[in-house]
């Protein structure tokens, strides 16, 4: 009877994961979907604690003190960390939690390996692979986390690909030896662990910091697979379905994220234009002349406009200028100017970055236009103000088949009457390429840090 | 080799393999049409779901002998890390989505 | 009652139940966005797929004792009917779809 | 080794079913999807014949003569039937094949039940339910088939719902007795079979003939479930996944088909407006006056039009007038008139009916406009010729909230300059309701059988 309840709990858990993921992929139901999955997870955890029994000995679990101790500590720390983290450091946090999951899978395999009971070949495969993938995911996530919060700098390691290849080969050889039972020396097993950790680190190290969201999504699906191996080991349906679902959904999500940036996964992993090269590709072309505009002129132009569109980019996030931006919007609206925001899907450094950022500053949701809508009404805008965006307004994506970003849909700002670009210099953005837009006749440059410029602009506007 | 192929013939395993295949397809189908604004929350939600590995940690922990201190410690660590993954993952996802939905309602 | 609940606890069955659940969701996901012109061919294609019941007929037929004439006859009938379902189903679906695609190519 | 190959074949089979269904639901890949699934099926069948062995006795299958005999006969008959059937009798054919599948599941259960070996409770459940559902599906499909080819007339059976309820209850009671092992009298088992057959017949009998596509789709998913029970019985993954996939996909498809007609499944099953009531609901309202148009006038009007849209409906199919229709189109095009077809998604009696029909007459695919496109260009049409369509152009669907078809999207023919309606009388169509359109000022009626009218029209046009 009790084991029937356990299995029903597991089935319900699996179902909530499917439904939760489904709901998470639609804007209206996303939040509820997350809660549905969380409820299923809670059920599965408590059912395991109280109802699980060893299939051979029929013993229940013991060590309740340790288990609840761990659960409580993890819950408190996890909740606090998740509640305190800044919106813009979310990907960092996700990476950290992902690493925890990987480490958990690694530890499970380690303990199972140490158990004296003889293991079948199938069990050995599962233990070794679970440990291997869990470790890669753990190590990789830690590096990704370090990169995102700036502790680890981007660096190309000479011969990284060759080293990775060797590490990978080494892991395979050791894994075959351990699984095949050619040796029972436990150090071989620990050797795999060491190689996997090194591989995880070297795999993520050369990838540009800005590509981390994609990498985290990939590591996410690795951890899913590691969890699934646990499902094999304990013949546990909820671990199996949950793990594999995340493994496959995560892989698709990774590909979708790459597509939104118009790049291939391979291109991201080899890092053809990560943070590293930024700033070097400029100057391929003869630079034209650009014209500057003063703060005062900008203020006048905007005050007498009927419609203004603001296009935020990565620079706005770096400058933490979202509140100043909202300030500007309010001042303009008071003057009867209609203000909207044009949001490019990959503006910033994580998907939805701009939405989250502007939501934080209480910008009304209906002012945020998705790219297509923004482009549709671009022709009726008097002034377009570009705040720290670059690649997402680069006309080369439309005109220049040789450009690395060719094919990416962009915000077509040149349809508007005036284009004002705020950035600190003429340096390129994330893709490291020159932007023709800055030299076009309609464009005027307004140099300076986004936050400072916005604050001055608001002050000027109040006087107009 | 025989031991290896037996992994496939054993009635139990082929069912597991079927489950794996179905889950893979289901994962792909479920995600395939997600708008890009939801990429980050979805990644984060999926991250919380693979925290289901915690169940393995609980099983390992709950079976450890009372005097096997190494196993107890490692198991305890596994439970803590797994819980972090689950709880942190769901809470952080909820916070992200709150950002979107709060604004949407005022619409 | 015990015998009944054992259906759920038996490790083999819960895996089967998991397979059932996953297949249900997958069936729903896979179909959910089909244009109405394809309703008939899809119905017909699905009809052919459930002809997989023929495998059961083959197993039953192939195990029948050589002197159990009733089983032989019923099994033979089952194989014929199952084959009709499979072959007829796929062929008729192909014909329907040919109608659509032939014209499309001339476009 | 061999059983590994068998299981791999089964896995491949399951995968082809998933991919096949997926591809079948997209127009470009549909045909290939069907072939993919067929290939997987073939693989699974041959793998079973040559590699399957009894899990207990490890015996291979024998009786190869019988097996191949059955396969060959089934293949020949099935192929011939499927090749010879007329396009418009396809749903009939599908229903027949579906019934064969149900009967196959029923026979399997029957043979398994007769085997002397003791069965576990789980096995008994599976055997009984497989037989029950297979029989209902078989009997229901035969009735649906008879209705579609006109052998069985629509009839309401007084108290049908009460009888069905009793039959259903009887089946459940008998099933519990047999499964629970309260009796080993085999006649109880055959009793279930008889009740199931009666239930299948009475379930389909009162439903209007025109609703049969929906019913067939539902019975289709029943047979899928019956096949899945076979999968349980033999612990066979490909039967299990194939059966359940069809079971759930079929259910969704049924619902989608109902939605396209703007009706609920319940409404279809209880038959609130099946063929029965057609013709009775007319006359609720005061009939206005309608005006007729002569063949000659029609010919002149069309010959001097610039754009003509033809709207085919069920009447065109009944009259088998598709070739005459194509004839008309060619004559008009020779005179420089631009001709297109406006295709409503539920025109006719099966989804895609009109596409199939016109494709048969070699009407070029690009002349067929889907409803939205047709409505978009309706305003620029000089003449709209409605051939045996009625409900799909009924303005009540837009204007009259009390109408049973209210909410269904329609072809908005009144946007065009002239509307000519060809049908044989003022009788209503499938939904059995009056059509305001016929009394509107723009509309002229051209009475007669569609085929004859078209032939005369072509003759007239050649003289204009
Ligand atoms: N959203 C995602 O999911 C995601 C993930 C990974 C990568 N990406 C990539 O990131 C890029 C996003 O494009 P984007 O247009 O938003 O950004 P961008 O192309 O990276 O350009 C940002 C610009 O902001 C300026 N800037 C930096 N700090 C500033 C400050 N404090 N004040 C004012 N301006 C400042 C920089 O110029 P100065 O140095 O001259 O000031 C830079 O040119 C795309 O290439 C996209 O593919 C996106
Ligand atoms: N497509 C599907 O999947 C499907 C499935 C089930 C039900 N349905 C339903 O079927 C209906 C389809 O609408 P529809 O407009 O195509 O057809 P309809 O509303 O049934 O009308 C057909 C009309 O054709 C006329 N007609 C019959 N024989 C004719 C002949 N030999 N020559 C000329 N006219 C003839 C009839 O009028 P006279 O008797 O006066 O000639 C009748 O009014 C919808 O209500 C839909 O919901 C569709």
Overview features:
heterotetramer; A: Rossmann fold; 3 domains; 17 helices; 58% helix; 7% strand; B: 107 residues; flat; disordered C terminus; binds NADP nicotinamide-adenine-dinucleotide phosphate
Please describe the topology of this protein.
The complex is a heterotetramer, with two copies of chain A (464 residues) and two copies of chain B (107 residues).
Chain A: H1 2-24, H2 30-51, H3 64-84, H4 90-114, H5 121-148, H6 160-180, H7 186-204, H8 212-233, H9 237-260, H10 265-270, H11 295-303, E1 307-312, H12 314-318, H13 322-334, E2 338-343, H14 353-360, E3 368-370, H15 371-377, E4 383-387, H16 396-399, E5 418-423, E6 443-447, H17 450-463
Parallel strand pairs in A: 1-2, 1-4, 2-3, 4-5, 5-6
Helix pairs in contact in A: 1-2, 1-9, 4-5, 4-8, 5-6, 5-7, 5-8, 6-7, 8-9, 11-17, 13-17
Chain B: H1 2-9, H2 11-31, H3 39-49, H4 54-63, H5 69-105
Helix pairs in contact in B: 3-5, 4-5
One NADP nicotinamide-adenine-dinucleotide phosphate binds at residues 210-211, 213, 261, 313-315, 318-319, 346-351, 353, 388-392, 422-425, 427, 429-431, 449-450 of chain D.
Walkthrough of the structure:
- Chain A has 17 helices and six strands.
- With 464 residues, chain A is α/β, with parallel strands linked by helices.
- In chain A, strand 2 (338-343), helix 14 (353-360) and strand 3 form a beta-alpha-beta unit.
- In chain A, helix 4 (90-114) packs antiparallel against helix 5 (121-148), helix 4 runs parallel beside helix 8 (212-233) and helix 6 (160-180) packs antiparallel against helix 7.
- The radius of gyration of chain A is 26 Å and the shape is elongated.
- The relative contact order of chain B is 0.10.
- Chain B has helices spanning 2-9, 11-31, 39-49, 54-63, 69-105.
- Chain B has two domains: 1-33; 35-107.
- Chain B is mainly α.
- Chain B has five helices and no strands.
- Helix content of chain B is 81%, strand content 0%.
- Chains A and B meet through helix 1, helix 2, helix 3, helix 4 and helix 5 of A and helix 1, helix 2, helix 3, helix 4 and helix 5 of B.
- One NADP nicotinamide-adenine-dinucleotide phosphate is lined by residues 210-211, 213, 261, 313-315, 318-319, 346-351, 353, 388-392, 422-425, 427, 429-431, 449-450 of chain A.
């Amino acid at each position: 009877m009790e084991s029937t309840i356990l299995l029903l709990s597991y089935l319900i858990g699996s179902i909530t994961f499917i439904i939760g993921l489904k709901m998470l992929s639609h804007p209206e139901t996303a939040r509820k979907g997350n809660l549905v999955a969380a409820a299923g997870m809670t059920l599965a955890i408590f059912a395991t604690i109280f109802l699980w029994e060893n299939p051979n000995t029929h013993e229940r679990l013991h060590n309740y003190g340790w288990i609840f101790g761990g659960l409580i500590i993890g819950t408190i720390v996890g909740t606090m960390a998740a509640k305190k983290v800044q919106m813009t450091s979310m990907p960092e946090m996700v990476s950290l939690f992902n690493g925890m999951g990987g480490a958990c899978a690694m530890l499970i395999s380690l303990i199972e390996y140490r158990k004296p009971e003889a293991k079948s070949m199938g069990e050995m495969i599962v233990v070794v692979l679970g440990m291997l993938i869990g470790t890669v995911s753990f190590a990789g996530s830690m590096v990704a986390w370090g990169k995102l919060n700036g502790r680890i700098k981007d660096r190309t390691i000479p011969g990284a690909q060759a080293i990775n290849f060797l590490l990978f080969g080494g892991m395979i050889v050791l894994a075959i030896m351990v699984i095949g039972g050619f040796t029972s020396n436990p150090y071989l097993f620990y050797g795999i662990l060491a190689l996997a950790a090194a591989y995880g680190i070297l795999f993520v190290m050369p990838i540009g910091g800005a590509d981390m969201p994609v990498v985290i999504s990939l590591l996410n699906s690795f951890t899913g697979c590691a969890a699934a191996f646990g499902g094999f080991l304990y013949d546990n349906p909820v671990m199996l379905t949950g793990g594999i679902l995340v493994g496959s959904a995560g892989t698709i999500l990774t590909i979708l994220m790459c597509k939104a940036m118009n790049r291939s996964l391979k291109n991201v992993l080899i890092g053809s234009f990560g943070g590293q090269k930024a700033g070097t590709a400029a100057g391929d072309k003869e630079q034209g002349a650009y014209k500057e505009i003063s703060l005062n002129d900008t203020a006048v132009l905007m005050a007498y406009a009927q419609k203004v569109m603001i296009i935020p980019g990565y620079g706005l996030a770096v400058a933490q200028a979202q509140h100043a931006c909202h300030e500007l919007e309010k001042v303009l609206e008071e003057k009867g100017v209609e203000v909207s925001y044009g949001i490019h899907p990959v503006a910033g450094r994580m998907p939805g970055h701009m939405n989250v950022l502007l939501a934080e500053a209480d910008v009304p949701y209906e002012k945020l236009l998705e790219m297509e809508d923004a482009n549709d009404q671009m022709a009726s805008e008097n002034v377009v103000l570009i705040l720290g965006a670059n690649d997402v307004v680069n006309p080369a994506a439309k005109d220049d088949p040789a450009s690395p970003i060719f094919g990416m849909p962009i915000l077509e700002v040149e349809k508007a009457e005036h284009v004002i670009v705020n950035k600190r210099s003429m340096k390129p953005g994330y893709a490291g390429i020159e932007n023709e837009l800055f030299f076009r006749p309609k464009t005027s440059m307004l140099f300076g840090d986004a936050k400072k410029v916005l604050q001055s602009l608001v002050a000027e506007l109040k006087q107009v | 080799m025989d031991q290896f192929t037996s992994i496939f013939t054993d009635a139990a395993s082929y069912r597991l393999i079927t489950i794996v295949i179905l889950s893979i397809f289901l994962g792909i189908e479920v995600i395939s049409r997600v708008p890009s604004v939801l990429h980050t929350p979805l990644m984060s939600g999926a991250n919380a779901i693979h925290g289901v590995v915690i169940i393995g940690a609980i099983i390992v922990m709950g079976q450890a002998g009372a005097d096997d201190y190494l196993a107890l410690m490692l198991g305890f660590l596994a439970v803590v890390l797994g819980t972090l993954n689950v709880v942190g993952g769901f809470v952080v996802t909820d916070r992200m989505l709150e950002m979107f939905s709060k604004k949407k309602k005022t619409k």
